[in-house]
Amino acid sequence: MVKKEGKQQENGKGDEQRKKNGKGDEQRKKKMNEQQGGEWQGRKRKQGRQDEQGKRMVKKKEKRQENGKRGQQGKKKQERQDERQEKQMKKQERQDEQGKQIVKKEANEQREKQMTRKEGKWQKNGERGQQEKKKQEDKTNGKKSEDKTNGKESEWRKRKANDKRIMRRRTKKIENKRQERQIIRKRSEQRNNKTNEQREKQMTRKEGKRQENGEGGQQGKKQGRQDERQGKRMVKPEEEARKTRRTRKANGEKGRRMEKQMARKEGKRQKNGEGGQQEKKK
């Protein structure tokens, strides 16, 4: 009995030790789980950051593609505008050529009128001279003048009336043509003004869109160059001609002033030279 009790006590001690060891195992398991959970959370956070970075890169790529498409669309629009401007310039040249031809026709018509007037005057003067010669011959011969002059004068008056009618018709035609030209010029000026206003509106719209989209400074510089080119193209040939005339006038006035100054200087030098010669002689 004593032996059994001793064994039971020893076994009880062993059970207590086992329980203590079990508690240590539980603590170890908790620590391992905590360490593994922290690592998993860190990995999860890292993965979330990487996913956010990837999304940002995708958005940047999409924005770049959109900006590229917009740039291509802007280039196409610019090309279309250039083509329209070239067509308008060609139309303007054609209209100018038509105006020149009309002016030439008017000048030719006026010359023809002058020539017809001169010819009529020559004919009238010739007929009158012939009549006066016949009268003087009749007087010298002692004959009375026959009644042939009255018939000639009536024919001459008919011709004169016909010439006046023809001149009136021609003047009416010329006036109508001038009125038509004035109307055409006014319409062309109105069209040009409308096109210029539309271009300015388009340019303002483009600038607003660029500011809203937030394009870079490089694109703004490119647009500034295009605007300068556009402004140079917008300048009409008439304005350029006026500027050149003004510059020529100014240059001519400067040249005249310089010539006057040089002449004065030469005169002074000659006077001074003559004075020096006289002093030498004295």
The largest sheet is: none
Secondary structure tally: strands: 0
Shape: elongated
What pattern of helices and strands is seen along the backbone?
A: HHHH
In helices, the fraction of residues equals over 70%
Low-confidence region ranges: 144-148
Number of helices: 4
Termini separation: 175 Å
Mean pLDDT across the residues is 75
The fraction of residues in strands falls at under 5%
Rg for CA atoms: 54 Å
Quickly give the structural class: mainly alpha
Describe this structure in words.
By secondary structure, the protein is mostly helical. Among the domains are: 105-135; 161-207. The protein has four helices and no strands. It has helices at 2-141, 149-213, 217-234, 237-281. Helix 1 (2-141) runs antiparallel to helix 2.
Topology diagram in text:
Layout: H1 2-141, H2 149-213, H3 217-234, H4 237-281
Features:
282 residues, mainly alpha, 4 helices, 0% strand, elongated
Summarize the structure.
The chain is 95% helix and 0% strand. It has 282 residues and is mainly alpha-helical.
